[in-house]
Amino acid sequence: MTPRKTVTGAALASLLGVAALAHSGATGVVKDRMTAMKEMQEAVKSVAPMMSGAAAYDTEAVRRAADTFRHHSGAALTEDFPAGSTEAPSEALPAIWQNWDRFDNLAATLGVMADGLSRAAGNGLHGAGGMMDSGTMMGGGSMMGGGSAMGSGMMMGNAGGAMRMSAEQIGQMPADGAFAMTTQVCAACHDRFRKDED
């Protein structure tokens, strides 16, 4: 069986790059948000092998990962970023507060995606050679690729009249599609609002 591709290499590298964060010396809200990011990173690591076909699919593990994303989304996420909280070892960029509406929107969207992923968990994976391999969700320049939809605000709903999927709609997808969309929200936030690692 050919492994399915559900998360682009760049997106997964961005998410797993959180592991390199130096927690030593972090205090207060910076430590809190680093802990939250670590928990989400662990959630990604726990299900990514299932999504690629490298491990047996486990519906409940996917739901637990979705619960982790949901727990750290919306206000729970934004409250961990009070203005000016950039002291080392934080990797938060000032762009968060300069583009607060976008950051807030990404945090809220993560919650919608997490709810959709939880609903989609029981749907299993899309067949090999299907939706996720064709690039319709992740590749090229369609819905998720190259930062097109996520980067332009199409999925974020901040472009006039742009599409915004509901948790119910995401819940109709195969779990690997919902997982890909969820991790793309994380990657979009990291790309815009986190310092690049050296």
From TrEMBL:
One of its GO terms (molecular function) is iron ion binding. One of its GO terms (cellular component) is periplasmic space. InterPro entries: Cyt_c/b562, Cyt_c_II, Cyt_c_prime. Residues 1-22 form the signal peptide. PROSITE patterns: CYTCII. Pfam families: Cytochrom_C_2. The keyword Disulfide bond does not apply. Keywords: Electron transport, Heme, Iron, Metal-binding, Signal, Transport. Gene3D superfamilies: Cytochrome c/b562. The keyword NADP does not apply. GO terms for biological process: electron transport chain. This is Cytochrome c. The lineage of its organism: Bacteria, Pseudomonadati, Pseudomonadota, Alphaproteobacteria, Rhodobacterales.
